[in-house]
Amino acid sequence: MNPNPTTHKFVAVLNKKIEAGKLMNALGHMAAGLSALVPDKDTMRFDSYIDKDGGTHASISDNPFIILSSDNSNQIRTLRNALREQTIPFTDFTSTMTVGIFAEQKQRTSETPEAELEYYGVCFFSERTHASELTKKFSLWK
């Protein structure tokens, strides 16, 4: 167990116009992908929690994971562009990544200009104060 306070956080911003089931699917894909992207796994502080009976609840991060909502896809696009410009690792999920098998989804995405993509969400991992600055206009998910 690391006794030091956390310095980073996970953040997901989800498009509130998209139905909940689709957003949960998108969030799962984004979180899984983000874990693979972040080069410094130690800052993610994954640890196991042990219950009183000795059962292990493995690979839970000590860092907060904040879920925020956006009014629309364009707000997510703007945040995504800021993350890219600042070289912060992130994952995103769009409407082209649903329906059919992965090969069809990849083809549909490759045939769609970025400006026409409908973003379901974006997920990133960053130093806490920096993440808060980037997301100050978003509200907590309700």
Structure explained in plain terms:
This protein has 142 residues and is an alpha+beta fold. It has one domain: Bit1 (3-Layer(aba) Sandwich), CATH 3.40.1490.10. It is 36% helix and 29% strand. The chain has a five-stranded mixed sheet with strand order 5-6-1-4-7, sandwiched between helices. A two-stranded antiparallel sheet has the order 2-3. The mean pLDDT is 96.
Summarize this structure briefly.
This protein has five helices and seven strands. It has helices at 20-37, 41-44, 73-85, 102-110, 128-134, and strands at residues 8-15, 46-50, 56-61, 65-70, 90-94, 119-127, 139-140.
Shape assignment: globular
| Beta-strand proportion | 25-35%
Structural class assignment: alpha+beta
Oligomeric state of the chains in view: single chain
CATH topology: Bit1
The CATH C-level class name: Alpha Beta
Give the SSE string: EHHEEEHEHEHE
Low-confidence stretches: none
Mean pLDDT: 96
Task: Output the strand order for the largest sheet.
Answer: 5-6-1-4-7
